[in-house]
Structures are given as C-alpha cells and as structure tokens.
Amino acid sequence: MKIVVIGGSGLIGKKLVNNLRELGHDVVAASPSLGINSVTGEGLGEAISGAEVVVDVSNAPSWEDQAVLEFFETSTRNLLAAEAAAGVKHHVALSVVGTDGLLESGYFRAKMAQEEMIKASKVPYTIVRATQFFEFVESIAQFSTEGQTVRMPSAYIQPIVSDDVAAAVADYALAAPVNGIVDLAGPERMGLDELVRRFMTARKDTRQVVTDENSRYYGVLLNQHSLVPLGEARIATTRFEDWLKRTSN
C-alpha cells in the first residue's frame, strides 16, 4: 500500500522508510528538503493522494516555546486536513513517553497540543510514545554541563535505540489503528545519572557526572518516574551496553 512518512529524511524517518520499502510498500519520504512541507503545505496534497497510511515522525527545527508550538500545530492541522480529504485510513504519530507530566517545557506542551489535535480529528490514529533515544544521551549531557561537571538527577529512564523505534513504528503503521496511545521503551531501566555516567565512561569523556536531584531535564524538574512508562509498554531488545560497544571508536 502507499504510505507517506512525514520527516522521512530524519533519524527515525530514514530507517522507517527503508523498513517499509523492504516490506514491499510504496513509500513517499516527505520532508521540506524533498519538496514536501507539512507547515507551508508545499507538495502535501499530491504526496498524500492515494495513501492509506500517513506516519508523522517529523520534529521542529526550533525548540523555542512559540516556534515549536506553531510548528506542531500548523503541521498537524495541515496533515489531518489533507488526510481527511484524501480518505487516509490511519494516521500514526511519534511522540514522547510521559509527555503529559513534562508540561513545564514548551516542547512538551507543543507535543501535547499535537496529540490533542490528532485525538480530535476524524482520521483513525495511533500515537506511539517512545522513551529517549540512545543517540541523544550525549546532547542530554551537554545540556547539563557546567565546566567539567555534568549534573543529572537519578530519575529513572528506559532509553531505546532508534532502529528499534523505527521497527516498532513500522509495525504499528501496518496494523489497525488503536485510536489511542501506545508506549515504547528500551529493555533496561536505570537512573538518568547512571545512563550518562555509562556513556561518558564508554566514550572516555573526562567530565564528572554528579547526581543532583534539582538538575533539570531540558528545563523540567523530574520525579522518579517522569520519563518511563507507567503501564503496559512494548519493550525493545537492544541493550545500551551493546549499542555503546558497537558505536565506540
């Protein structure tokens, strides 16, 4: 069937496009760099025409509060309208585990707005909330670095590799809409401080990781379970240690 992947040139999008094409589907990789823009509407109607499924794994170019909100609201509004007009049978969107508890952040308020718009639409949907990706641990550490010190809380995290996210999103895209939210997480639960410490050790990074419960995660003060699934979740298989070994120089 024809499947459109919005954000098809990004980290998850590229892997997802490849996965679906290998399964024999007609996949349109959509992103501004490929001439299809869900914010301006450029090329959107033509791309979605005849599609049965649209998967949105796009991300905002700016995380400034107003800019990120405008991106997700405008993009989602345009997508859902084009899908309704084209008779799309399933809208799949990638979101973040714990979004509704992270609303201190403008980014997560924007993701919540996106989710609410999807729920209110007449297009059948599946929202896939994933935990943080292995690939972004370095940027988490960088965000919380002061000199040679990285301050991290011990709040639990259950990170996942992008390959496992793409594989799961492909499965959900090919299944019937759940008209609800599904959670997706990695196989190991650990403290955020421990995760960053393990990453630093593997990368021979000399910065010191200090456990600080008042340290914020992208501006958000966490409780112990803010970043992990609270109920049933699909659990991926790739362990952090195996990924570290595979990607270390």
Automatic annotation (TrEMBL):
Keyword terms: NADP
Membrane-spanning intervals of the chain: none
InterPro entries per the UniProt record, alphabetical: NAD(P)-bd_dom, NAD(P)-bd_dom_sf, NmrA-like_oxidored
Key word Cell inner membrane present: no
NADP listed as a keyword: yes
Residue stretches making up the NAD(P)-binding domain: 43-171
PANTHER family: BLL4366 PROTEIN, NITROGEN METABOLITE REPRESSION PROTEIN NMRA FAMILY MEMBER
Protein name: NAD(P)H-binding protein
Species whose genome carries this gene: Paenibacillus anseongense
